[in-house]
Amino acid sequence: MDKKVFIKDTSAGAKDQTRDFYTAFIDQLRQRKLENSVQLIRVADIGVYNQGIVVRITPDDFLYGHVEPKDIPRIIDESVVGGKRIDSLVCHHVSKQFRIVLRNCGVIDPENIDDYIAADGYQALAKVLTEMTPEQVLDEMKKSGLRGRGGAGYPTWMKWKMTRQAQADRKFMICNGDEGDPGAYMDRSVLEGDPHSVIEGMMIAGYVIGASLGYFYIRAEYPLAIDRIQKAIDQARERGLLGEKIFGTSFSFDLDIRLGAGAFVCGEETALIASIEGKRGYPRPRPPFPSVKGLWEKPTCINNVETLANISAILLRGGDWFSAIGTDTSKGTKVFAVTGKVKNSGLVEVPMGTTLSEIVMDISGGTASKKRVKAVQTGGPSGGMIPEDFLNTPVSYETLQKLGSIMGSGGMIVMDENDCMVDIAKFYLRFCVDESCGKCAPCRIGGTQMLNMLEKISDGTGVSDDIPRLKRVSAAMQNASLCGLGQTAPNPVLSSLLYFEDEYRAHIVDKKCPACRCGALFRYAIIQDKCVNCGLCFRNCPAGAILGDKQSGYTIDEDKCTKCGRCFEVCRLNAIFRG
Amino acid sequence: MIKAIINEIPVEVPEGTTILEAARKVQINIPTLCKHPDLTASAACGLCVVKVRKSRKLLRACCTPIEEGMDILTHDPEIVSTRRTVVELILSNHPDDCLTCGRNNNCELQTVAANFGIRTESFHKFVRDIPKDDSTGSIMLEPSKCIKCGRCVEVCQQIQDVWALSFLQRGFHTRIAPAGDIKLNESPCVKCGQCSAHCPTGAIFEQDDTVKVWRALQDPEKYCVVQIAPAVRVAIGEAFGMAPGVNLTRRLYALLRRLGFDAVFDTNFGADVTIMEEASEFVERFVHKKGKLPLITTCCPSWVDFMEKFHPDMIPHFSSCKSPHEIVGVLSKTYYAKEKKIDPEKIVMVSIMPCTAKKYELTRTDEMFASGYQDVDIAITTRELARMIKQAGLDFAHFPEEDADHILGDYTGAGVIFGATGGVMEAALRTAYFLVTEKNLGKVDFMNVRGLKGVKEASIMIDSTKINVAIAHGLANVEYVINRIREAQKKGEPMPYDFIEVMACPGGCIGGGGQPYGVTDEIRLLRSKGLYQDDQEKSLRCSHDNAFVQKLYNEFLGKPLGKRSHELLHTEYKSRPVYSR
Amino acid sequence: MNKMTVEDLKKIKDGRANGKKNWIRVGYSTCGIAAGADEVFATLTEEIKKQNLDVEIKKCGCIGMCYAEPLVEIQTEGLPRVFYGKVDKDTAAKIVEKHIGGKMLLNDRIYQVKLNS
Fold first, then answer.
1. Which residue range is the domain that position C91 belongs to?
2. Strands (DSSP E) along B93-202, which ranges?
3. pLDDT at position C117
4. Which of A433, A441, A473 lies at the smallest CB-CB distance from B44?
5. CATH at residue C56
6. ipTM surpasses cut 0.95
């Protein structure tokens, strides 16, 4: 059997040693005339981080970390040729990912229903319709402990039960695919990669609550997701999996798609309902809850895409199986969209209880800049910043809330030392101000006032009173806003104030931005002692703000400088001052 | 009944009662700027938040129904501080021109700000410069003063079914305007003014025509005459701290004379004339089968505008008779001018109306110039008159009482009830009975057409003939009535009704868009009660018994529906586009 | 098509159990398409056809490694299952030529090695 050896330098050092190591390794192979029977491959990513040079040997699947060039002969002789594991080199890495929601994403062809069926698709539905009463399904869901993945974490079985109990001639099922948090896109990915799993979840929910019609509410910015859901609906309908008397039972169910016009607030249940009804996407007060009076005044159950993608897996494998995954209060897995300054941005599905550090450092490879992680932002604009000190926190609804953030829909934005917390808070707040529907005064005006204060702070015109004032408006918004958007919009500001108040004070009192992000509060200058007049900065300045020539040297014209930082990046001698 | 506790005081309220309403029952007022008793809670302002034990969040009192055993706290430092900050935020987005604002001293936001004792402005002032919209000539939109409470939108869309106003844009840029950002006069707006009557601030306001009136009064060349609509007399007192429903007719006559009017008339006289024409019209159609049934009343200009825009197929059912104030207007410049030998060109006719749409009606069609001049020159609302009285420094409360001027000032009980929903119907029935039977009714009260029910249906016997009538008020209630007619038409069935009265405003004119602020159903009932009491106390309660009406027909008009009547007292309708742009 | 029965589900599943030994999956979600999966898929299809190889190729969703898109997962008999990341047109051609044709793994382009499958 051919052996393959994969190598990768995973250390955080500036220089990637993979090539040098490769050369050394291949030399050793040649010496043993093994170069034709053993294939040595440099990989771009080996799935393990901060373990020095990592070597993986297949098909034995030996994984060695912190390998030194001196270990090469031993590895070749003992492991590659001898097939024995060298325990002292073993890197104990187990994949921390666990896929339930994403089980089919990237595996099946989403536009082919047979692919889904071959992956146990619609088996759960068949089981539910032919073998289970709605009550039994509820019991199983209760056992599973699944909670809503849209953000609030409401137990799914309770939502179903309340809608089931409501008396009405018609009921509706809605899939909330109005994903809008900056940086979160797991719902899009599931809709695009495994549309039938969501449809199956909808149908099972429809069976339990007593609905015969369901709506997908998907934002119009997701054309591919819409296209794939439509194709999936068409295929399911063609097979009779949607329509009358499914699997020969008395259960009938059909689906339709409604597009959201890109208003963040329409992810809020009551605004979403208003939007489907063709009205302005305004939230309305609750109670009555949608489970009692929802779409067209009828009992309606709204579940998020990720929640629905869990359903068939739970019912196929049992609530107990699901509840064994995760923590005491947060069961199952959660998909996170890890983005920002992280090395490997993408979707990560981990069991609840996995620590932030495992997600950010071990799975996603830490920061791309190899700088320290300053904070991790979870929960999108409704969430908060969690500083480095708390990265060992296991992720669950409760723990994140305790830290002043929320689980939210699963956006996770990693920030390094070059990120200014005032700037980040401003970014999120601006998002909420832009997306506020404008219905209630606390959110509409409060958000604008807070943003104004943050803008002043980052402009260097903030005053000390701004901090208590920010807190006062935040409290009013939390207490008096009508819907979740306004109630949680101050969270990024409050959490950054909680952990990084010093940074605010630096902006306000010292008129300095420690991370050098707020353009008005730092400057670039050429350190003449270090400068060799190479002209690199001069050539690279997009604003023409660097004056001078190779003979007389260079200076930066601060009036013209746009603080883009290009000169700082290109200078090889660290001759550009920033601060 | 549900038992709960508010601030440690036990309360017992019917199911569905909100925390806000329940608190009022135990003498606790929770502030709100968006909730209005007429309207479903929009929950926009955020001022009414309260704490409920065991609830993590603060709840809005305006829209949270009380539940059994709820333990509610309406005031504590955190709640008050939240409310205070919200008020400050609203103020930061509101102009500071209270002194020159139409709602100065009468503004809900001003009151709340005063109650919270806000003395400094903690926040940056963001007031958007949005142009005013005065295109209708009836209602003025000043969106920069809008606090987005949503009352106007709700009343326009849900109560009136007009859908002229809506919110445009979103977030901080949200503003009220007709959909499509067109002008109000290009929109479906029917000028009913309910938006202005419900607005808590000065964002929607009646077009102020008082300056025109003052100018006319000060012009020695002009002969100024005035008339007051029935609904005005039982509401204007509210603007002077008097109870709703107090009948101030004779005091108003005296006041108007003191303001400088040369003659004081009463729209009720016009109402009596309207009844002569309309009841005759009804008898023509009902007894003599000339023209379509059901006959639909047309005293209300907003309803006329609404019908012309949304239900033009109903035009053949419309009474062609003008509204009472237009009748007094045209008669003042013809009949009165002739009698008193005054050059009608010099006559300035001012109507005091509970209504903003009357301003629009003045030039609605060519028939509004039947006298050869504009029949009514200026129409001002009750609110505008109240301001004029205050400007003139007249002590309303202690004013003496006087009578109106003949020959356009005397009225019967039938004329005065025009101001309440069902009143036109009742007045018409009294005279129709006489016209059909040539006998006077023994008992003239038709109780089943009175009251605030949205659609009232009744069958009335005239001798042995049954007349089916319907009364709708609040334009959203019209649809049911009209759909029944259309359905019968489609199926070729007999008409469900013979006679229909429609008033645009809930409660009829007493709830008009130009009436003093703060109207509720309770106040509507008190105002109507004032009118019905006036009717009760009149010795003459049927329009055809009005001696001056008889004189008018004998000496000037001839007979109802006659040639001169037709020229002066009747009008036409045409289909109009819902959107004129 | 007739209404599916529970038995039909099983039939489809069983029918797929012995699928092709050699296949290619191309990440074809928004992230993949944005990164150029379209061109990669076209090149792969074209090259396979040109060389008349017995390989099934299909478009799939996103596996989550969005940073490495366009992502191509390959199963070839005798080789471990690997993901090639940041694949461009040239790499796609090389994948068909060397990986599928020559049974050689490509240096520097592998982003994940899947074992036990």
1. 20-114
2. 139-141, 165-168, 175-178
3. 44
4. A441
5. 3.40.30.10
6. no
